[in-house]
Each structure stands twice: as C-alpha cells, then as structure tokens.
Amino acid sequence: QPEVGKPMRNCYSLPGPDFTYGMYLHKRDGGVAEAIGHWDAVKAKPHVRIMPRDFVTMGRMAVGEGCTTAREFALYYKFKDIRCKDEGILRYGCKIPPGMTFGRPGRPSTPFFDLMQHRYKELWMESQRARTVVQHVVKKKMSDVRGNRTTFLRTHPLPVKEESFWHPQRFEKV
C-alpha cells in the first residue's frame, strides 16, 4: 500500500555517485581544453560515381558486330557494358588548380603605377578622339547627295539606237 500523500516508490535502486549516464567516449573525452586546442577534422572519403550507360556507342558497336534483332541487341548490351566518360568535373576531395576561386580564376591585379600616372584617363581620351573622327567621317558621307536614276541618266546618256535597214523579203521588189 502506498503511503498517504506520497508517490509510489519505484523499485529500482540508483547507481552510485561515480556512475556516468550515457556513453563514455575514451577518444574524445578531453574536456574543454581538447575541444578548444584540437579540431576534429574529418577526411573526405573518395566518392565513386557510377556513370550511366552509353547506349549510343553500344548501339553503334552492336551494328558493327552484325546485330539486327532486339534479342541480339539485348545480349550485346548484357555482355558489353560501356559507360559514359566522365568530363572531369571538380568534385569534393579532388585537387583544385592553383589560382582558382570557386571555379573562376582570380582577377589580375591593377597596376598601381598606371593609376598614379592617369594612364587609364589617357587611353579613354584616345578612344574618344578616334570615335569622334569616325563620327565625322560617317556624317560627311551622309551629307553627300545620293544620286537617283535621273541624275545617273543625265551623266551617262543611253547609246543611240542605230536604225536598221532590214525589211521583209516581200517588200524588196516594191
């Protein structure tokens, strides 16, 4: 019978004060000093990627071998397993070329000496001068009057047609 006003007692006895609840890890139980001083780095496992089958190449080779029916093609595909080639995409864990940042090469540094001498301003001014010269040439070409058919015929008259003295044979005795 439970005592009045008190909960029922459980029948389990608790372990002693030196008992550790949960799982004790010998490897990583170094406390705060080990957590701050030593980072636990995980090495990446090589990822084996199975490429899909290259049915175009297998079909071409099967025709070259003389396969004509669907059964022959299926048997050829079963015994000749050709996979697509890997294009060499950079994956996690493989070496990245030097100078590459997230797949794009780094920008070349701007020469400070050119900045100090206003070299970029001079290049811009030269390009503007060349642009205005081109614009003037185009404008000059546009201002010329374009000749039409009448002006062409005035300068180049048509050749005069020579009158032919040929007559039909029946009028020769007249």
From TrEMBL:
One Pfam family hit: CFAP77
InterPro entries: CFAP77
Highest taxon of source: Eukaryota
Stated name of the protein: CFA77 protein
Species per Swiss-Prot/TrEMBL record: Machaerirhynchus nigripectus
